[in-house]
Amino acid sequence: MASVQARAVAAPQSFVREKILLGMGLREYVRSCCTKGNAIAAAILVVGVPILIYRFIAGLGATTALSQTAPWGIWIGFDMMTGIALAAGGFTIGATVQIFGLEEYHPIERPAILTAFLGYVMAVIGLLADLGRPWNIVMALFNYGTASALFEVAWCVMCYTTVLLLEFTVPAFEWLGWKKLHAVMRKALIGLTVLSVMFSTMHQSALGSLFLLAPTKLHPLWYTPFIFVFFFISAIIAGISMVIVESMLSHRVFHSQVANHPVDIDKLTLGLGKAGALVMFAYFFLKLQGVIDGHAWGYLATGYGAWFLVETVGFGLVPALLYAYGSRNANVKLVRIGGVMGVLGIILNRLNVSVIAFNWNQPVRYVPSASEVIVSITLVTIGVLLFRWIVNRMPILREDPRFAETHH
Amino acid sequence: MAHDFLSIYPANLLEYVLAVGYLLMFIPFWRYVQGGKAKEVAVRVAEPRAAARAAIRAPRPTAGWFQLPGGIHLHPGHTWARLENDGLVAVGIDDFAHKLVGPARVELPALGELVAQGEPALAMGDEDRTVPLLSPVDGTVVAVNAAARDGKNGIEDPYGAGWLFKVKAPRLAANLRQLLTDGPARHFVEDAGERLALRMSPEIAHVLQDGGAPIHGIAHALAGDDWEQLAREHFLT
Fold it and tell me: Touching check for B46 and chain A: CB below 8 Å?
């Protein structure tokens, strides 16, 4: 650390230039940023960030369609709930590598943890945006409402985001060259992974437990006293599917990084597909069981019933079968299609439970305002941009040769 | 009435039927997902590295009575592993095992089968009895030496053309740490030879045995019908 600082002091350009500007001069770097994709992202940010700031100035009433009868909207339903579910890849792959010892999945472990970390950060920002009095969020540290499911969510998300940050410091310290700190964090990784599985189990299911308080508000096809179990299992499905999709995109976008270190992503995808097939198969039957347990099969013949079947069969059973067929016959393309459908299915499930089938018997239904949609898209864009920034600089998709000996 | 609270019996019946049906369907589904052809991407069974080939052709360093070339990682159960050019690991039996059992049939694992270091993976023997041998590495079998398996006279050249099967080894570094090379491997094979010598003439014990290569089928010569026992003792099975 001292040597890096000495170098930084001696040649102030070189640290910034090497680490931040990817070895280019400032003008060169700015010119390299002028791409079509960046233009679209900039357009989104230019509109979305001011709206987000305006929300904090003017309040919820001015920027959202929320009301007394519609207490939460897509900032919770999509940004928080879906974001947290899709960030479940961190603990699933972390557990696969560190706890189950399947070292061949190590190449996708770091991108999964990074996705999870950024997902949670964005989810927390979405949550803060949705809270009526966001400055009171620190009270969760002091008011021990232990009978409340939301208390559990708040604490577990706080703890888990910290754990993710600590897990993320391993590649970050490699990037900075801080060998001693890196060695310490490297050793702590398995302990952090155990903690991450523990915290994830608790808050993924606790997000479902929130709905135990409102059994009449959630449509009977989706409500069941076992909803927290469903949330946890669907989080695992979300993690597996999201890692399949993210690894497919990363290896295409960051092709230059992985070109010299060929990783058999296809084989890992097939392995994940196999696991996903079995979990999704079980989940489908669990959902049916939930419907029967609530005596709600009569609702299947209604409009909501059809929508339920779209979510459960179309985006639940069909991807399970795609995973099964694809992983058995080594057809990576099918597994990837299954992955995309799985991700869409989780998004659909979380949106259904929190927004679409919630308050289903109210006369006036909630429809998100334009500002809410723009802010959601903005948060996702920021997450993707941060992901790209970090992957371009830190050893996420590739190994750092100076630290190669400490890897398995 | 869509939400029928009084339908307790139909509900329970449906629940049980669904649960049992799910369990019955899960078993074939599991087998379906886990099955499928082992992904035999055309494995270019490359020629052993030029260096390894030279080592095989050169007059071999010997370990007592038995041959033991360089580049070989030896397992205490008398099987060896060698990293090939194409990234796969070739597995075979060493000269000691070859001479101990003599010309014999080999039974090899199937393609796609998983082998584990220290677990029985292959066997050799005659018509009535076979002796299992341990795999030196963990991995998935991706190539099998059909000539060795189907040949009438068992294998020739246990380190070269007599390679038995090739494995894709994900944990090669960890596995290799458990195996012997060079000096330690030579000592090990020499010790094994000495143990055999002791059996042959226990009263003479440590007299230098020089001259004459050992014959094939030492185990048969030493122990007759109990050759299987003697072989198992050395192969750690």
Answer: no
